[in-house]
């Protein structure tokens, strides 16, 4: 499992272990890896490690599942390099190493709405990995996902601060998927015939409804700020010299919120329940500190 220390990666390690797979977790930080319940761990930076080290990391495995990629949290501390300079080369080296070690299967997590949004760097970076997989000798499955529940935590944070900005088209629809549900689909793909699928959660919601669910979980009155698209586009372009990643993300968030972005209905978890569980956990935290 590569990208094992990420939000989805941690869920995949858990799901694969629960299914009886012996998991080798790959990530950059030995400390983060040590917190995982995987049978084996390898700390390797896929952008800078020598090829021999990357090959050793996948030596003897039957299959690789990759959710490796630059963080989609727009925080400068998590790195500034754009997605074409992280996701594509890191996964390219992983695929090369897997081919060299004769790994049989590869499951890769890419981005939904890839046809409509294929001109954006964020999507392009993933689709270049898919193109390499199609040309490789490895049996590959690609799961293109809609937004993960964990990616919508920022909506809950904004609701907590009082107002949620609505980008693009607030009536555009999507079906976000729980990280755990997607993780189980990744694990199931290991045993299924190779395929490319676009997957999402069981519930179709408008962007406005997603924000309303966050306020409902907090028990507060929904308040929105409607940002003009041109302003978001200009702000994104201005940030490019400072952080190509934030610029890539701003373009993506604007465009993905401007149209319907749907995947096959899959999984069982609902976003409203996820928000309620997070809100409840946050409300209980100060009380626990009093002990
Ligand atoms: N979040 C969404 O809504 C969404 C939707 C569709 C597709 N996706 C895609 O799904 C994938 C997983 O998303 P996520 O939210 O789980 O991302 P994440 O939490 O940022 O995890 C990414 C993982 O990649 C690792 N990584 C980054 N650069 C690396 C490098 N040079 N060498 C080795 N490992 C490296 C990270 O390691 P560290 O822990 O050391 O940083 C982390 O384990 C990404 O490609 C993302 O673009 C996400």
Calculate the terminal CA-CA distance, rounded to whole Å: 39 Å
**Order of strands side by side in the largest beta sheet?**
3-4-5-8-11
CATH class annotation: Alpha Beta
How does the helix and strand content classify structurally? Answer: alpha/beta
CATH architecture: 3-Layer(aba) Sandwich
Mean pLDDT: 95
CATH topology annotation: Rossmann fold
Number of helical regions: 11
Share of helix, binned: 40-55%
Topology as a string of helices (H) and strands (E): HEHEHEHEHEHEEHEEHEHHEH
- Tell me the number of strands: 11
Q: What is the count of distinct domains?
A: 1
Characterize the biggest β-sheet: 5 strands, parallel
Bound molecules: NADP nicotinamide-adenine-dinucleotide phosphate
Shape, per Cα inertia axes: globular
Amount of beta strand = 5-15%
Features:
291 residues; alpha/beta; Rossmann fold; 5-stranded parallel sheet; two-stranded parallel sheet; 11 helices; globular; binds NADP nicotinamide-adenine-dinucleotide phosphate
Can you describe this structure?
The chain has about 290 residues and is an alpha/beta fold. The chain has a single domain (about 5-280), classed as 3-Layer(aba) Sandwich (Rossmann fold). It is built from 11 helices and 11 strands. The chain has helices at about 5-20, 30-35, 50-55, 85-100, 120-135, 155-160, 180-190, 205-220, 230-240, 245-255, 270-290; strands at about 25, 40-45, 65, 105-110, 140-145, 165, 175, 195-200, 205, 225, 265. Strands 3-4-5-8-11 form a 5-stranded parallel sheet, with helices on both faces. A two-stranded parallel ribbon has the order 1-2. Bound molecules: NADP nicotinamide-adenine-dinucleotide phosphate. The site of NADP nicotinamide-adenine-dinucleotide phosphate (NAP) has 27 residues, from helix 1, helix 4 and strand 4. NADP nicotinamide-adenine-dinucleotide phosphate (NAP) binds near residues 6, 29 and 86.
